[in-house]
Amino acid sequence: MSKKNHIIITTLLICSFLLLTVQIVRAGTHSSHFALNWWSFGNSWKYYYTQQGTTNYSNNIISAISSWQTATSKLSVSKATAPYGNVVVTSKNFRNTGWDGITFINLRIDLQDSVVSSNRTELVAHEFGHGFGLDHFSCSYELMRAFGYKCSATPYEGDIAGINALY
């Protein structure tokens, strides 16, 4: 084989590989941003909310859950009648932590009192997304993006694909 043919074949192989890789990554971006399904209670969730500070997140929690349940039929989330829900949500002033909300592996969600009211439902929906098993994702329009607010608590196609892959 001539050197010219070798260069052409090598170039075609590299281009084919790059095109295939881009397509795989592109196809996978909206279906693979989930973490692990660590919990044994499946898709039936109960939450308990305790307000320990000045901000009441009750309506934000209801709206956030409604957003998830409207987006996918794979989740069943309801309020627990006693403090024994699968998820325990607490709001208070956690001081200068650098976060507005955080979800722990034991399914405790902590929410800062200081969050601007227009961002609270989105924050709660995002933290419940972590509770459901979703990780951060690098698309700015996804609910599960790592930073900032998009002024909507509605899960986007990647968020929904992640839930559908987990449940």
Can you characterise this structure?
- The protein is an alpha/beta fold.
- It is built from 4 helices and 5 strands; from the N terminus they run αβαββββαα.
- It has a 5-stranded mixed beta sheet with strand order 2-1-3-5-4, covered by helices on one side.
- Helix 2 (58-71) packs across helix 3.
- It starts with a helix and ends with a helix.
- Residues 15-32 have low confidence and may be disordered.
Kindly report the average pLDDT value: 81
**Radius of gyration of CA atoms, rounded to a whole number:** 21 Å
Write down the overall geometry: globular
Oligomerization category of the chains in this entry: single chain
Strand content: 15-25%
**Helix amount:** 25-40%
Task: Spell out the blueprint of helices and strands.
Elements: H1 3-29, E1 44-51, H2 58-71, E2 76-79, E3 87-92, E4 101-103, E5 108-112, H3 120-132, H4 157-166
Parallel strand pairs: 1-2, 1-3, 3-5
Antiparallel strand pairs: 4-5
Helix pairs in contact: 2-3
